Amino acid sequence: MKRILFAAVGLLSLAGAVNAATLDEVKARGSVNCGVSQGLPGFSSPNDKNEWGGLDVDFCRAIAAAIFNDPAKVKFSPLSAKDRFTALTSGAIDVLSRNTTWTMSRDTTLGFNFAGVIYYDGQGFLVRKALGLKSAKELQGASICVQTGTSNELNVSDFFRSNNMKNGEVIAFGTIDETVKAYESGRCDVFTADRSQLAAVRLKLTNAADHVILPETISKEPLGPLVRHGDDQWFDLVKWVYFALLNAEELGVTQKNVDEQVNSQNPDVKRLLGTDGKYGEGIGLTADWAVRIIKATGNYGEIYDRNVGPATPLGIERGLNNLWNKGGIQYGMPVR
Fold this sequence. Notes:
By secondary structure, this protein is α/β, with parallel strands linked by helices. The protein has 13 helices and 14 strands. The chain has 2 domains: 15-120 and 223-326, Periplasmic binding protein-like II (D-Maltodextrin-Binding Protein, domain 2); 124-219, 3-Layer(aba) Sandwich (D-Maltodextrin-Binding Protein, domain 2), CATH 3.40.190. It starts with a helix and ends in a 29-residue tail after the last helix.
């Protein structure tokens, strides 16, 4: 009986060691390898100094802050929609934080875990104002530009079929820049992508005011960061970084007041900030893991407003991405 127990303990220890592999590798390397887009304003794009910024970028910085207490310890790898999954599967990146839709096939057959929905989105259509279109239901027979490796082609086909519309020519391109260039040059009548991406693309066009996003949203596009199957500790860490950002906003803990909030007597704040309990140990970190995150990036609302909110060039209202108690559906699981 003792031999069986010792063997069981040994197997559990071995499993724990295997599951801790990614965090150990990241710590040994001294940085998080993060896959991002090849340039999507507001979400992940470099400036003229090659400094990356955006909502997806800040999420990676939050992970680095949780682990290293330094949001700069991230290496960003720009990836096309076609190449993003290969990079994650191969281990070239530790986390993919790049406008990627959570679908069943990606979550099961591709071997990935989505850590949450960092941005609730939906697919739409961008057209020239000169066409005089008011609805996507007027797009029958139109030529449509899409990016290869996305779910956009299937969504367009489903939309046309469900509305008994004649599907036009769908033209796929390898990168977002190639797709935008084709649309602007007149190669196609319509550009289709997630609505947040269309807002960013519109800013890249020579005369943004000459183009309009049609009102219909034709799909659900829950966008979120993902990691490989098989490393539960790393999955938990990335997932709880996301929840910490949401919980901090709900509890009113901000980048400016986090040091003051450490002295809060609110039980929820105390557990989040590590003054009550040792919840960080469950994800391989110290008790003040969330303090480091919030100091580095602010809470979810601060990240959103800074990168894509109404005061930015994208000017996107919170909508579904507001907190659950403010009319949206963003919801952080409780720290307890």
